[in-house]
Amino acid sequence: IMSSEIECYFETALELTKQAGKLIRDRISENKIVEIKSCDIDFVTETDKQVEKLLIDGLSKQFPAHRFIGEETASAGGQSSLTSAPTWIIDPVDGTLNFVHGFPHSCISIGLFIDCQPTLGIIYNPVLEQLFTAKKGQGAYYNGKRIHVSGQTDLTKAIVMMENGTSRDSERFNCLRANQEMLVPVIHGIRSLGSAALNMAMVAMGAAEAYFEFGIHIWDIAAGEIIVTEAGGVVCNPAGGPIDRMSRRVLCASSQALAEQLTQKLVQFYPTPRDD
Ligand code: IPD
What are the binding positions for Mg(2+) in this chain (predicted)? Predict the structure, then answer.
């Protein structure tokens, strides 16, 4: 694909993201009507649906041959298979629980995959005006400035991000607790922003060294993957080896060495069903 084509895809997506971001910004401190999805802490609001529609309508008008995997379309029974066709993977509001509470860490996350490979990523938090972007081979940016991972190689000097997530699965909770118990005594600290995409952005900009989660979906990580790798970081399977994008598991880190230290120590959980 020509780089001018990628540029056109990027500019179109960015313009729509800015428009859609206004909906999130205008409504974050209002009362929302909340619907429950997979369990009592997995939410969807009218804003999630409107943002997704605005983005998919806008992109499909410009690029009629492109395909889409959207969080709310998938939740409503749409399918999530990733083919070689250009595919936009969209989380309209990543951090919906934050959005519902008015906690200012929610974002739009958009990744474009071509030939099943990440090509561009946009993560936009319209509340705090944080824009993270990356295009294949062209580096990662935060509000227009180039960013890099910290490069830290020592887990004992790391901030590690992890999440409670949006399921009440007791086995997953046990795994979470075991990992917390293993990490807290040896690392610098644990953090969570309540958005997988923004956690990945923190690793990309060198503010945190690692993030892992069992139970995320492809739309939570599709933009973050290329932003982290273009910032010089590593995105992989939390059990080691290359990322399995539909497995609902992810680990990203500031270096290969740090990723390996974590993968050797983590208690593993394999969420079902997969995204594909
Ligand atoms: C959620 C957020 C959260 C993570 C959950 C995700 P959503 O996405 O990324 O940080 O822990 O696993 O489902 O549902 O707000 O788009």
Answer: 71, 91, 94, 220
Nearest Cα to Cα of residue 158 among 251, 267, 271, 270:
251
Span 155-265: which CATH code?
A: 3.40.190.80
Distance between start and end Cα atoms, the chain: 26
Helix, strand, coil tally for the chain in percent (to 5) = 35, 25, 40
Backbone dihedral region of 97: left (phi > 0), alpha (psi from -120 to 50 degrees) or beta? alpha
Q: Which CATH superfamily is domain 3-147 in?
A: Fructose-1,6-Bisphosphatase, subunit A, domain 1 (3.30.540.10)
The question of ipTM being above 0.90 is answered as: yes
Residue 91 in marked binding region: yes
CA of 1 to the centre of ligand 1 (A): 32
Mean pLDDT, the chain, rounded, equals: 96
Measured from the CB, is residue 216 less than 6 Å from ligand 1? yes
- pLDDT for 77 equals 75
| Residue that wins the pLDDT comparison between 255 and 80 | 255
Measuring CA to CA, which residue among 104, 57, 74 is closest to residue 220? 74
To test the ligand 1 pocket, which listed residue (203, 216, 221, 248) has its Cβ within 8 A of the most ligand atoms? 216
- Which runs of consecutive H residues, i.e. helices, occur in 88-214? 96-101, 170-183, 196-204
Q: Does the annotation list 57 as a binding residue? A: no
Res 74: pLDDT? 83
